[in-house]
Specification:
This protein is an alpha/beta fold. The chain is 35% helix and 21% strand. The strands form two sheets. It has a seven-stranded mixed β-sheet with strand order 4-3-2-6-7-9-8, sandwiched between helices. It has a two-stranded antiparallel sheet with strand order 1-5.
């Protein structure tokens, strides 16, 4: 990647864990069930303003579909996509062709140790920042790789998002007798209110902060049960015996459809500037 020095061995999920479990490590499976995330990411692009020749970093790019969409929207800009999952990056690279490969690059990297040769004009991230804990440090890392006057554009989960789907997962946990594995367990994601995210960005040093809170009943995402089973359900699956994980996933989708589990969706779309 022309704009960065990246260690191919860095696969940290958070800044304090030296040997983490990479949640999203099956790129092709994730991509087949990422319709919801892609639609949310496309809305984020409407929040971004760029100039000709700007450099854009996509943090937690996954299989690269949104990175490629960014390159289509902003045809004079270069786009670097980083993700901690080697399999995700392999799939992302498979999408490159000669028409776009000179402007889009994908590399395995951990945001917490990412040190580009040059800062970026824009750093964006969709459906990823809520996983990068602690949030104070992950958002500070974004601040650090932005140019002065550079722009932040992030889409992430908001307070109580997918609460109905989380309850559905706990129903299945009880059905399968795994309750003891989740005693005093907290879902490992940062889901703030809009005010909490605004305060965090201000504390770090961002200015011109705007956080849009979008709450819906989720009906606009017809494949949400399936998509959640392949993304949001993964922190639950980590605590389930490996031999039982596919059965758990299948029962979750079946149960969600049977009870018409609530699809309450709360997403935050944040923009800000580094002074």
């Amino acid at each position: 990647m022309s704009n960065s020095k990246i260690s191919q061995k860095e696969t940290h999920l958070d800044s304090k864990n030296s040997n983490p479990h990479i949640l999203f490590n099956k790129g092709k499976e994730y991509e087949r069930a990422s319709t919801t995330e892609f639609l949310q990411g496309k809305y984020l692009l409407s929040k971004i303003s760029v100039l000709d020749g700007d450099s854009i970093l996509d943090v937690g790019c996954g299989t690269g579909l949104l990175s490629l969409e960014i390159a289509k929207w902003f045809s004079t800009c270069s786009v670097d996509g980083i993700d901690i999952s080697p399999d995700m990056i392999d799939v992302a690279r498979s999408h490159l062709n000669s028409d776009i490969s000179h402007r889009v690059r994908f590399e395995v990297a951990n945001l917490f140790s990412f040190t580009p040769d040059n800062p970026y004009d824009v750093v964006c991230s969709s459906s990823a920042m809520h996983w990068m804990l602690p949030p104070e440090q992950s958002y500070q890392c974004i601040f650090n790789v932005l140019k002065h006057g550079g722009q932040l554009a992030v889409h992430q989960g908001g307070s109580k998002t997918y609460s109905g789907l989380h309850q559905c997962a706990f129903d299945v946990i009880d059905m399968m007798g795994f309750g003891a594995r989740f005693k005093e367990w907290t879902y490992p994601a940062y889901y703030p209110t809009s005010d909490q995210l605004s305060s965090l960005l201000k504390q770090i040093g961002f200015i011109d902060i705007n956080v849009e809170s979008r709450e819906t009943d989720g009906s606009e995402f017809p494949s949400l049960y399936r998509d959640f089973a392949n993304a949001g359900l993964l922190p639950f699956l980590v605590r389930i015996p490996e031999a039982e994980r596919e059965a758990f996933r299948s029962l979750f989708v079946e149960h969600a459809n049977r009870i018409k589990a609530g699809k309450y969706t709360h997403r935050l779309f944040a923009t800000a500037m580094r002074p």
